[in-house]
What does this fold into?
Amino acid sequence: MKDLLKALPWIGPAVALIAAVVLFPVGLMFWNSTRDISQSGVDDGGVGLANFATVVGFQYFWPILGRTVIWVVVVVACTLLGSLALAALLNKAFPGRRLVRMAVIVPWAASVVMTTLVVHYGLEPYFGIINSFLVDIGLIDTPEGYGWTRHAGTAFAWAMAVAVFVSLPFTTYTILAGLQTVPGETVEAARIDGANGVRTYFSVVLPQLRGAISVAVLINIINVFNSLPILRVMTGSIPGYDADTVMTMIFKYMQNQRQIDLASALSVIAFLVVIGIVAIYVRAVRPLEEV
Amino acid sequence: MAQYKRFGGIMAITLAATTGLTACGFGGSGGGEEGGGATTLDLLVPAYSDATQGLWNDVIAGFEEENPDINVELQVESWDNLESVIATRIQGNDAPDIYNGGPFAGFAEDELLYPVEEVTSDETYADFQPTFLENAQVGDTTYGLPWIASSRALFVNDALLEEAGAEVPTTWDELLASAKQVSELGGGVSGYGMPLGSEEAQAEAAVWLWGGGGSFGDAEQITIDTPENLEGAEFIKKMIDEGATQADAGASDRSPLFDIFVQGKLGMQVGLPPSVGQIESDNPDLEYSIHPIPTKDGGPFTLGVADHLMAFQNDGDKQEAITAFFDYLYTADVYVPWVQAEGFLPTTLSGSEQLADDEALAPFLETLPDAQFYPSTNPDWAAADSAFKALFGQLDSNKSAKDVLAEIQAQVDAG
It folds into this structure.
C-alpha cells in the first residue's frame, strides 16, 4: 500500500489520462447502449437490453457478422503472406534496397481515406483510369466501363485489396525486424547440414519469427476489424446491407438513421467480439511471451 | 522531497488538463457566456458550396457592425457531418443558438426550439411565402424559418436528343421512348440519368412516385407502401430494365452522375437551380435546355425543397439577440445576395420580387406554384429519409418494387 502511494506521483498522470480518454468513453458507450436516445440526441430514459435485441434481431445482422469474419480473415491472411514475401526480399542485400524499403512505407504514410479515394476514382465508370485501361485492352466491352464500386461483391473485393495494401507496410516492417534478430549462425548451420533454401526458411527461419508474426497478426486483427474508412468509401453508395460489416453498420445506425442508442449497442457487441478474439488469440498463441 | 513536490505539481497540471479536456468534449458550457454585457450567438450551418463560409462571414460582419453588443460565432460543417454534429451537441447540452438544416420536426417534438413568431418581428414573419410557412409548421406553430428553396426541373441535352431524333418528353411513356432512343446512340451515352444511390435517393423517389400520383404521407402518417407509389416504383424498374438509364442506377449518386450529364454523356437528368451555374463553369458549350419534369399523365409538378433555420431555446436568455439577427438576415438587401450567390430560390415575398427578372432562375420560379414538399413536419420523416437513402436503390436488383417499398415502410415504422 505504501509502495503504491509512493508510486502514485509517477503513474498518476498516466492513470488519469487512461481514465479520461479510454475508460470514460467506453463507460459512456455502455451507458448509451441501454438508453433510448431520440434522433436529435435527447435521452428519453433507460430501456435495459432492448437495443441489443433490436440490433441482433435485425434481419441482416448475421450476414453482416459473417461478412465481418470473412473481411478480417481474408485481409489478415493475405497481408501476412504478402508481408512474409516482402520482408524476405527486403532482408537480402541488393542495390537500391534502401529506396525499396522506403517505397514500402508510402502506403503507410499516406492517409487511408486518400489511398482509397484514389482507387475509388480509378474504378469509376466513364472517367476512372482503371476502367479506361480495362476498356482499352478489351477486357470490358461497355465503353463507359464497369461499375466496380456499384456491386456489393466487386466493391467488397476491391476494398479488401486496398485494406491489404495499406496493412502491408506495418506488417512487413514488423517481420523484417524479426528477420534481423535471426542469428546468422543458425542459417549457416542449416546450410552446412545440407538443407536447401526452402527447407532452411520453413524449418529454421520461420519458427524464429513466431514472436514477430504473432504480434503483427494480433495488431492486424484489431485494426482490420475496426476499419471503417476503406469500406465506407468503396461500398458507401451501394443500397441495402449486402456489403456491410459490423463497423459500417454502426456507422449507418449513427449517420443515416441517427440512432445513437442502436449504434452504441452494436459498438458494445463489436467491442466484446474483439475482446473475445484477442483473449482467445493471446491464450492460444501467447504472442507476448518469448519462445 | 523536493522532487515529490515537483512531480505532484506536474500531476496536478496533467489532471487539471485532462479533466478540462473531457469537460470541453462532454459537458460543454451550454453557451451564454455574458462577457462584459455582450451576448454571443452560436451559429451552426452546413456548407452549400465553397463560398458558404465567406457569405456567412459577410453577413455576420454587417450584423455585428449594427449590433456591437452581440457576437456571432460561426461553425460551418459539411452536409455529411451536420446531423451527427447537431445530435452530439444537443446530447452534450451544447446546442447552437441558431441552426441551419433540413428536418426540424424532431427538435420541435423534443421541445428544443423557439416558435418562429417569438424570434422574428411581425414584418419579417409576414414576408415569408405562405406555402413555405405552412411547410415549416408542426401543428399550428411555425418552428422553422424557411431559409432557401429549390425546385427541380428536367435538364435536357438538346444535341443528343436531336442526334437520336427524340422529342423532349412530357409524360412517362414519352420519356421512356426518348431515353431509349438516346441510349441506342451507343458510345457510352445513356438516355436518362437515374440517381438512386444513397446521396439523394429520396429526391429521385419523390420525382417518380409523386409524379405518378403518389405521396409520402402527411404530418400524421408516413405512407410509402401504397398502390399509388408502387406505380412509380414499377416504372423506375421498367426504365432500368429496358436500358433507358445509365448502368448501375441503384448505386449512382446524384452529384457524380450530374457531372456525367455536364460532360454530355447523358440525354436527360433532373437538376436543381445550382446545376445551371455548374454547367456554366464546367462546360459552357453544352447545348441544353430546362423543361418541366415529365409525369405519368403530363400534369405539372415539381419537388420543392426548403431548408430551414431554427432557433434553439437553450437557457432561454438570448431571444432578443436572435430576433435582431433574423430581422437583419431577412432584409432583402442581405438575404437576396446570399441566396443568389448559392444559386437557390428565396423564400420571402420581397426576395422573389427582387429576383423576378433573373433569366436563369425563371424555369424554376415558374414551377414553384406546383411544388410539393417532403412531409418534413412529420417526426418520422427523418427515418423515412434515411430508409430511402439506404434501400430505394434496390429497385435496381432482383427485388420486386413491392418488396422494396414494403422494406422502406417497415424501417420507417420501426422508427
Observations:
- Residues 1-36 of chain B have pLDDT under 50 and may be disordered.
- The domain at 153-292+380-413 of chain B is CATH 3.40.190.10 (D-Maltodextrin-Binding Protein; domain 2).
- Residues 2-27 of chain B form the longest helix (26 residues).
